[in-house]
Amino acid sequence: MFLRELTHPVTDLKGIGRRAAESYSRMGITTFFNLAVHLPRTYEDRSRRRPFAEGHDGSQVVTVAAVTAHQRVRFKGGYALKVVMQDESGTAALLCFGRNFLQNTLRIGEKFYLCGQGKFQYGELQISSFETAPWHEDADPPPEFSRIIPFYPLSGSLTQKMVRRHVAALMRSSLKHLQNELPQSIMEASSLMPIAEALKEVHFPSSLDEAEQARRSLAYTELFYLHLVIRRRALKRREVHRKPVQYPGTLMNRVIDSLPFELTEGQKRSISEILHDLGQERPMARLLQGDVGSGKTLTALAAASVVIEAGRQAAFMVPTELLARQHAEEAAKILEPHGVRLALLHGGLPRRERNLLLDSLASGQIDLLIGTHALFSNDVEFTDLGLVIIDEQHRFGVMQRISIGEKGTYPDMLYMTATPIPRTLTMTIFGDLDISTIDTMPPGRKPVITHLASQKSRERVYKAVMAEFNRGRQAYFVYPRIEQGEQSGLKDARGMHEYLSQKIFPGVPAGLIHSQVPQEEKEQTMDAFKRGSIVYLAATSVIEVGVHVENATCMVIEHAERFGLSALHQLRGRVGRGKDQAYAFLIYSDDLTDQGKRRLKIMKETTDGFRIAEEDLNIRGPGDIAGTRQAGFIQFSFADLVRDIQLLKETLQAVLRILTDDPGLLKNEHSVLREVLEKAPPFKEELIDQ
């Protein structure tokens, strides 16, 4: 059987009772498969003796030593046991904090196997974290003192010894019967271990090199099937043929000529690539990526005008009503003077207005429909949907993206993201999409100057913001919470709105925006902010997407370390939309971690969204960036898209060779590839974007 067919509950393993099963369940481990891919977080090499003398520099010791004395040391107002031991190289003191009962186990005069890591201080080697086992002259050492030992993530009542014992039982009962999931020709060409051997070596390695080779073999299999499923999807799309349409582009040219500015080179190049796709026999599937404020929306509207001129309809889907309204306003200014009929559809639309809108849409009286998730509704019908534009595509579930495309007959699909996608991910998640990149910003834009400030420096930040207010500018203040909760150390939008308006900026008009504010009130607040009658907003990250106010020059983010890099970059992109110099103040907490320092340092050093995206991938992993975590798509057990970049390339080439040179491997009834995809697919094919 294949690895993913190990669906027996973990309770079928001897030794796993109710408490252990509950503890495993907290980590998502409920089946044999889950336990098999529960990898060690690290290893300790105990295969070689390391006496006390080698531990003075803080290295691990693995030795046999005799107990020579019991002593007491002061500890928390009482005493702790100190066990003095001696091996052939010297002595060490075991500090048994909270384990005084070891006096009855580690008896004077007896020898024990000992493993631990200590520190030389107060004139002696002291070891406070250790493992021991009785030594017998004629017996082999226990496995945990003679080989490489795995250390696993734990939960609840589980201990390392328990998990090792359970995994070993699983190996004996099931893993040795596993069938390889790749054809032998691929395994030999890439020097891969058989799957049963690889699992054994990754859990209980004979050497650290073997452990890495085992992980590589298992990761290869995961990445191979990831590429295979995505590339098969791409091939299926390419099998769709339609009658090519000649788009004159006259309307688009009129729209572009009427703009008060010239398009950037990145916009011109992207429009050219989109126009090429629109005229092909197969439907377009293109990702348009560009940094915050690079002009993606205008590029998409230009593409929509081409389709509309040919008598077809376009749909423009966005994740929030706030963003939908902003896009509708922008589209109205650009397209309506040229006769384009557009409408805005969102969940809060009154029933009568909604029905009238849907009737107009179905009868072809609406050329461009802009909306939120409401576009998914079954009653939304188009006359001839030719182009679907999905903004901030990673905020939608994959199946949602698919369903909107099904409202037309093979419509062209244009996905947009202001979160630049690292090249690593474009090879994988978006491997079946063509990609256009707007890598130039509109002329006159100044990079946002970013300052890092500690909690103690907040007053200086407020003074800097007040100086901008005096120049007639506006600001955002962003907080990680709506209101105060159990974590009293975190500042919240509601509390700080009150504090700022009463203590810091009395008399300066302020607004409050967060997800719990009623939609009508939210719209009124944003309209007032755009008009300038509200000078600053206290908000949550709800303003991350879609707020465009050129006069806003200050972005203050409290507890900045609690936001991901991409979120910080998006928030910072809300300012600097005009020609005035803009500033971002990232206020960090006193207990900033090393990772938090690294994240904020990147934000200070660069405004390059692509570099930030690469760092975000390194820190957070791929799921959040690609919008696939919600679909359960990227849940690798062995592979790492950052560390395994070379393996990504190897597996991609292997898949392309098969699809090009040996497609029979996927059709032959004896093919392992076909069996795996049918019986135990590593990824759910229906979740992959069409």
Compact overview of the structure:
It contains 22 helices and 20 strands.
* CATH homologous superfamily classification of the domain at 449-606: P-loop containing nucleotide triphosphate hydrolases
Fraction of residues in β-strands: 15-25%
Judging by the overall fold, what is the CATH architecture of the domain at 449-606? Answer: 3-Layer(aba) Sandwich
Through-space gap between termini: 30 Å
Helix content, binned percent: 25-40%
Tally of extended strands? 20
Determine and state the CATH class of the domain at 449-606. Alpha Beta
Low confidence ranges: 396-400, 623-633, 685-690
Strand order of the largest sheet: 10-11-9-12-13-8-14
If you consult CATH, what is the topology of the domain at 449-606? Rossmann fold
General form: globular
Average pLDDT taken over every residue: 86
Biggest sheet, open or closed, and with what strands and sense?
A: 7 strands, parallel
Decide which structural class fits the backbone: alpha/beta
Radius of gyration: 31 Å
Number of discrete helical segments: 22
